[in-house]
Design brief:
Blueprint: H1 2-10, H2 13-31, H3 57-60, H4 64-75, E1 78-83, E2 86-91, H5 94-103, H6 105-108, H7 115-120, H8 134-147, H9 150-155, H10 157-171, H11 179-196, H12 210-224, H13 229-232, H14 238-242, H15 245-271, H16 288-298, H17 308-339, H18 341-355, H19 370-378
Antiparallel strand pairs: 1-2
Transmembrane segments: 12-31
InterPro entries: Cyt_P450
Organism: Zizania palustris (Northern wild rice)
């Protein structure tokens, strides 16, 4: 009886009507985008081809930046895309960017809440991913006034020059070298020494020294560039577990957190009963952890009191902001110079002329290297 009932249902006019309605709903949702939001206000132009669940994700392809350029040429400098369940407004002209980032900065200043950032940055206790507000303003004040002021940058010159010499020593061995790897080693060494000090904390975990730090930094950068499936399609949350993304995120956070806990505990231990770094006047050997510990103990300004979690979140900002951006810039600069040998020769002549009889370049020569500045800015 059950089988015969199913056969009758399959041949019934009611099923045909229901299937037809379903096709109409899907096709209309795919080909005829809504022009107004739920509150009645007009939405920006949006491309056709929005699929149920996926939205416009299929239109981005393997090269999203080129796909966005093509879509903007058709739909204008401001358009609406639906990335899964996330409505996303794309501004692709200078005027539109100025409107969002300058004229209406307070309305657009906050980053969207990203699950990966919340997992890795202590529930957004940092500055980079924190919403605009009092916490963000106080955190930014600490970074600008205490960590990135001219005196602090100058105090790290010794670290930069030592790591530059070490990198050049690796290049001079005579054999072929992988510049990408050298740039990663160089930038990781500088940011880790600036943040943690000269003591080697790389042995935390597997005992491979600086290689361990590079591994953890690399995993952190990779995860920040990863969008979990559950963020785009929430009901597919289980895919992140099956693919191992959830496990990798948890492991990377735990490794980084254990490293930061050890660094902070070590700095606090050295401060107890002894002279604090920086007590000798002009010469200031403090690293970022020392500075943040000083701020947590002495900064009386209202709005943000640094605890251990806050210190760890700001350290994470320094690591992420400095590492990937620096070695990517160096890598692209060398790639462009290799592809334009005449420009490389011009830059080499300028540097050799500035070096003179000394045979080497220091930060004191930077004011003379105008073509180098132009190359960096264009890159």
């Amino acid at each position: 009886m059950v089988v015969s009932g199913l056969v009758e249902l399959l041949h019934s006019p009611l099923l045909a009507v229901l299937l037809s309605l379903l096709v109409v709903v899907v096709v209309s949702g795919w080909t005829k985008p809504s022009l107004h939001g739920r509150d009645g206000r007009r939405l920006p132009p949006t491309p056709r081809g929005s699929l149920p669940v996926l939205g416009h994700l299929t239109l981005l392809g393997a090269l999203p930046h080129r796909a966005l350029r093509g879509l903007a040429a058709v739909h204008g400098p401001v358009m609406l895309l639906r990335l899964g369940c996330l409505p996303t407004v794309v501004a692709s002209s200078a005027a539109a960017a100025e409107e969002a980032l300058k004229t209406r900065d307070m309305a657009f200043g906050s980053r969207p809440r990203l699950r990966m950032a919340e997992r890795l940055f202590y529930g957004i206790r940092d500055v980079t991913f924190a919403p605009t507000g009092e916490h963000w303003r106080q955190g930014r004040r600490i970074c600008v006034n205490h960590l990135l002021n001219p005196r602090r940058v100058h105090s790290l010159r010794r670290v930069r020059e030592q790591e530059v010499a070490a990198m050049l020593g690796r290049v001079r061995v005579g054999a072929a070298v992988n510049l990408s790897d050298l740039f990663i080693i160089y930038t990781n060494a500088i940011i880790s020494r600036a943040t943690f000090g000269d003591r080697d904390y790389g042995a935390v975990g597997d005992g491979h020294g600086g290689g361990y730090l590079r591994k953890v930094f690399g995993q952190l950068e990779e995860l920040l560039g990863t969008i979990p499936i559950r963020e785009v399609v929430p009901w597919l949350w289980w895919v992140d577990i099956v693919t191992g993304l959830e496990r990798k995120t948890r492991r990377t956070f735990q490794e980084m957190d254990q490293l930061l806990e050890r660094v902070i505990a070590d700095h606090r231990q050295r401060r107890r009963g002894g002279r604090r770094p920086g007590d000798d006047g002009e010469k200031d050997p403090r690293d970022f952890v020392d500075v943040l510990l000083d701020v947590s103990e002495t900064d009386a300004e209202a709005g943000m009191r640094l605890d251990t979690v806050g210190i760890k979140a700001l350290i994470m900002d320094m690591i992420v902001a400095a590492t990937d951006t620096s070695f990517t810039l160096l890598e692209w600069t060398m790639a462009e110079l290799i592809n334009h040998p005449d420009k490389m020769r011009k830059l080499q002549d300028e540097i050799r002329g500035a070096a003179g009889e000394a045979g080497h370049i220091s930060e004191d020569h930077l004011t003379e290297l105008n073509y180098l500045k132009a190359v960096i800015k264009e890159t």
